[in-house]
Amino acid sequence: MSAGKCEVCLEEKPKLVNCGRCGDRKYCGAVCQRKDWPTHKYSCQPKKQPSWILKITIPDSREPQIHRTIVCPDGATFEQLHYAIQIAFGWANKHSYDFVARDPTAEERPVEDIMALMKRRAAQDNGEQRDFGPRQNFIRIVNPNDHKMADSLHSYDRRHSQTPEKKADKVYIGEQFNKKEWKSAEWEYMYDHGDNWGHEIEIIGRGKIDDAFKCTEGNGHGIAEDAGSMPGWEDLKNAYRAAKPTDEQKEKMHWFENMASNFDPEGLKGRENFVDLDVINSLLTSNIE
Ligand SMILES: [Zn+2]
Ligand SMILES: [Zn+2]
Predict the structure, then answer these.
(1) pLDDT tens-digit profile of 207-240?
(2) Which helix (H) or strand (E) holds 197?
(3) Which ligand is nearest to the CA of 27?
(4) Phi and psi for 17 in degrees, rounded to 5?
(5) Which of 6, 135, 137, 288 has most Cβ atoms within 10 angstroms of its Cβ?
(6) How far is the CA of 81 from the centre of ligand 2 (A)?
(7) What residue ranges define each of the domains in the chain, with the CATH number in brackets?
(8) What is the distance in A from the centroid of ligand 2 to the CA of 72?
(9) Alpha carbon separation from 104 to 70, 107, 108, 136, 281 (Å, rounded)
(10) What is the pTM of this model?
């Protein structure tokens, strides 16, 4: 609140109120504000909020643990964050994904015996939802193009009848990270519901008001897509570490340098920590709008 001229009646007042949405227009009170709204609504844009600084880690990765710090605009959708993660970690965007806000107080899932698992999977293959244990997540934000993905069936394990689902292109980062109902949530991005590459998303702060994604820091070469979960990735790293690689190891290295969806012709030797922030940032600028 400040003193000045009301933008509608043009009278000088000791106290003015700002439009709660854009924060730009100043009024002497509710009467003038209401009078202004039918025209002001066309130019009234929500006030921009500072970016979110996210430290994203693949917690199962070791030596090195792979992580990136990404500055994410407050108004970005979760679909845009998905693209940013794909670029920053060097993924090939060939599999499905979801984001979940994990409830840290959720009861653990029971150990499921093979018969129960098979029954549940069969029911799910018929399109029926069978909950796997108690609810784990406050919300699940899903790939809007899931139907194109071969691995989308496996994502049923992450569905729950008491966990609402929303499409990633319709949900905004700022709105979700500010939700009072799940302030305690631990955010997770899961890529590839077959190999289950889990990424922990830790909110480490707020930056400036900015419309662009930026990767400010990171370590660890991106994982080869379809490497065969974490053990497969470890096997590949071991192949590059071997003084005398076996034929099987040579084959793996050849696959990684030529055939993987996110192949790297330079291989991994001495490059396990490799991250090129300049390349990542130029891809973020040219690919996310
Ligand atoms: Zn007025
Ligand atoms: Zn306004």
Answers:
(1) 999 999 999 999 999 999 999 999 999 999 999 9
(2) strand 197-206
(3) 1
(4) -110, 145
(5) 137
(6) 28
(7) 2-40 (no CATH), 52-220+279-287 (3.10.290), 229-272 (no CATH)
(8) 24
(9) 24, 9, 10, 8, 33
(10) 0.86
Diameter over CA atoms, the chain: 85
- Sequence letter at residue 102: R
Contacts of 51 (CB under 8 A, 6+ apart): 71, 72, 73, 74, 206, 207, 208, 209, 210
Q: Could you tell me the CA-to-CA distances from 234 to 53, 63, 65, 229, 241 in Å, in that order? A: 29, 10, 12, 9, 10
Q: What are phi and psi of 135, to 5 degrees?
A: -60, 135
Distance 15 CA to ligand 2 centre (A): 18
Residue 21 CA to ligand 1 center (angstroms) comes to 18
Ligand 1 center from residue 25 Cα (angstroms)? 11
Q: Residue ranges of the chain with pLDDT lower than 50?
A: none
CA of 77 to the centre of ligand 2 (A): 22
Distance CA 249, CA 238 (A): 8
> Which is nearest to 56 in space by CA: 90, 18, 22, 9?
90
Neighbouring CB atoms inside 10 A of 220's CB total: 21
CA 78 to ligand 2 centroid distance, Å? 26
Could you tell me the two tokens for 279?
A: 């390349």
What separation in Å is there between the alpha carbon of 15 and the centre of ligand 1? 11
Q: Separation of 85 CA from ligand 1 center, angstroms?
A: 48
Q: What is the mean pLDDT of the chain?
A: 93
Between CA 47 and CA 11 the distance in angstroms is 25
Instruction: Confirm if 27 and 33 have CB atoms less than 8 A apart.
Output: yes
